[in-house]
Every structure is written in structure tokens, then in C-alpha cells.
Amino acid sequence: MPDPSRILVIGAGFAGTHLVRALARLLPKEISVTLVSDESYTTFNPMLPEAVGASVFPEQVIVPVREMLPRDGPQQFIMGAVTALDRTKRELICRTLAGDIVLGYDHLVLAIGSRARLDLLPGMAGQALPLKTVGDAMHIRNTVLRRLARIELESNAALRRSLGHFIVIGGGFSGVEVAGELIDCLHSIRRYYPRVAADELKVTVLHGLGRLLPELSPRLAASALASLEKRGVRVRLETRAESMSAEGVRLAGGEIVIGQTVICTVGTSSNPLLERLGLPLHQGRVIVGGDMAVPNHPGLWAIGDCACVPNAFDGSHAPPTAQFAVREARVLAANLRDALAGKPTRPFRYRSRGMMASIGHRKGVAEVAGIALTGWPAWLVWRAYYLSQIPTRSRRWRIAFEWVLGMFYPPDITHLRFTRSHEMLADERRRQREHALETESAVATAR
Ligand SMILES: Cc1cc2nc3c(=O)[nH]c(=O)nc-3n(C[C@H](O)[C@H](O)[C@H](O)COP(=O)(O)OP(=O)(O)OC[C@H]3O[C@@H](n4cnc5c(N)ncnc54)[C@H](O)[C@@H]3O)c2cc1C
Q1: Residue 2: its pLDDT value, please?
Q2: Helices marked H in 190-303
């Protein structure tokens, strides 16, 4: 007879960490709760565009999971990737730094999020820069800095223009946020690149629909559009990208928008683990009942971006947002407590409190509790909200301090490369060999 009190949660994103924290409050200490995740930190994805625009440092958008869990509770965190699941034996295999381990469970919660989709358009996998992880954000930021450094050294005017053109695909939240952050970042850091002219740097948004930010009211969407255009962003509505190449983006009508940097904020695909589990999916998300249990699989639950959760408030499916993931986690914690006590569970029911977007340095749009805000007040509300979500006080203070400093100084242009000493030595030896070969061939030609 297995111990009836082992809860295993896979995924330490918004959903998984909030669930484990809520369980720590609701469950007696005898019940073991284990959180397994392949990264040691949670990424505050809504702040990734700010990391791209160098408004915040990458370490400000992540929080170590171990810092988030209550220290005196029975919860355990294991860093490892779940690779397989045996639902009959109620066991999973987790690949850790110490090799594969088998973990048993009585209740298993899938909170594994989704992935960026890179096969949406031909050429996308090779050319587009997705924005889904903190690594993506750092890569885009470094690419932008490398482009500026290269423009300074190139003399071909067409090549300089192509290097300086940043194309953002998608005019939803992430696209608008990235475009706003990028244009402000380019304006502020150009002072460090004296041989790059202002008109050599451009940001273009390509958006398939008739207006930006379809999740917000038309008024706020128009305000975001006006703010972007005022700062020089070119927004092309009803414009569909068809394919990508090293040259740029080919549009549906055949036109090619020339630019070497394409940031793609559209398209998600399901986590490969979900596909391996063979559970019924709807649009790449596991189908769950109102209480977030997977039908016909006792002890299996799913929440967050990886789950298709019906919302009893309006009969819709909960959207894949952090706001909903956190609320789902709280309701599931209560449902797990009730299920363990043999009581009935309750359906997820939540009315969105609003939406916010930061659209550049100290600019935002927000709709909170029916009140529409734009510009600096919206941006302040946005930052205050995310600061309130940072789980530990020490980290909150550190981030608040950096944010205040960031209001008075230009963005950081450090292009950090983690080159290790033996890589430097190997590079040096390679250059010496190349130099020796060139000298040999020059001597041979002279003879
Ligand atoms: C650029 C961007 C901007 C966004 N802006 C907003 C916004 O402004 N407002 C908003 O509400 N939402 C926003 N979102 C959406 C929001 O980030 C997601 O809805 C939210 O992160 C979902 O939480 P989750 O816990 O379901 O998934 P995630 O946060 O993606 O977490 C999934 C976790 O599972 C782990 N994992 C995956 N597979 C495995 C495995 N096999 N084994 C172990 N661990 C695994 C991952 O490492 C990760 O820790 C944004 C998203 C992006 C990408």
C-alpha cells in the first residue's frame, strides 16, 4: 500500500511555484510535496522585453526556486528534467546532475508551460530570434549590441542599413513591449557608437491584424500605436510574414522587408513531454476538467500554460497568462487538500483583474479594474505590480534599488561573453596556426 500523501509537481514556473507555496500553507506537514524543474529558477516572463531593452539586468527577471519555497516546510526541490512517466506504477524518471532517478507519487501536477514555436514559417528556425526564456532575452540583447558594433566598422551603406533594421513579428503584448523597449534602448545607447547615424537604426513591427494589442480596448491599443510611432517605430498592420531568410522577411504579397535581425513573438507549441505522455490535447494543451484534474487519470492534474482549463466564470478557456496560472495554482492547492480529505473539489472560476504592458522606458498602457491608464502612470502600476510579485523581501529591495538607479542612467551596454581561459588559449593557438600557414603560402608565392 503506497504512502497516500506524496504530491509531485513538475515545473517551477508561475503555476508550479505558486502551487507549492499555497500547499505549504494548506497541508499538514506529514504530506510530502516535491517540486521538480529543469531550471533552478523561475523566470518572470512579463519582464523579458525589458531585459531585451536593457532596462533591467537579466538577473532581475529570475528568482531562484529555493528562495521561493518556505524554509521550514516539508517541500523539497529537485533540479532535473522529467523524461518519462509510468502512470500505472505512478512513477516518473527525472534526469538530474547525479543521473536518472525514479520518483513515486500519489498526485502528480503537470505545470510544465509551453515552448516557442520555430516551425511556423519557412526559414524561421534558422533566422528568427524567439523570446521565451531569459537566455533568449540575453541573446537578443547581445545581438543588438553586436549589430551596432559592426555597423561602426562597415562602409557599405546598404549593409549598414540592413544591420540596423530590427524587425519584430507580432503586435501582441510581447511584440509591442519588445519594439518599445528596443527603440528606446537604441536611442539611449547610440551615444556610445559615434559612427552610427540615427537614421541607420530602425524598428519595424509586422502585425497580421488590423490593430495592435487585441486583448486591450481599442483606445489603449491606439494609444500604444501612437506612442510607438512617435518614437519612430514603423508599425505595419494587416501585414503577414510568409517566410524568412538571411536577407529579411518576405511578406504575403512578395515584398521583402530587408533586415538582419528578426525577433519573433508569435507562436507557441506544446512541451515535448506532453506529446510523449499521449494525453488528450486541445491546441497543444492538456484537456482538464473544471477542477483541473485530467479526466480518466486519477491523481493526475494540470495547470498553467500546459493546461486547457475551463473558466466557470464565463465558460471560456483560461488564457495562457501568468495572471491565470497563479489563480489556477491557488484553486488547485485547495482542491488537492480537499481530494486528500475525500471532500468534493471545486471548479476554477476567475475574472481577470486587467491587463498591463510596458511599452518602453517609463511608458505603458494598462486596464486595471476597469480603469484605463497610459504613459508613466501605467508603467509605474506595471512595475509596482511586478515588484509585489517578487517573493522575497531582500530581492524586492535589491530590484527596486536598481530600478530607481536605472531611471537616471542610460542602459547598460555590456556585451557579456562567458569566454573561459582554455577557450582563449585554444583561440590564440588557432590564430597562430593560421598566421603560420598564411606566412608559408606568402613565402611560396614570392619564390
Ligand atoms: C515574453 C513574454 C511576455 C509575457 N508577458 C506576460 C504578461 O505581461 N502578463 C501575463 O500574465 N503573462 C505574460 N506572459 C505569459 C506567462 O509568462 C505565462 O503564462 C506563464 O509563465 C505560465 O506559467 P507556467 O508555470 O504555466 O509556465 P512557465 O512559467 O513556462 O514554467 C514552466 C516550468 O516548467 C519547467 N519544465 C518544462 N519542462 C520540464 C520537464 N520536462 N521537466 C522539468 N521541468 C520542466 C520549465 O523549466 C519552467 O520552469 C508572457 C510570456 C512571455 C514569453
Answers
A1: 47
A2: 218-230, 272-277
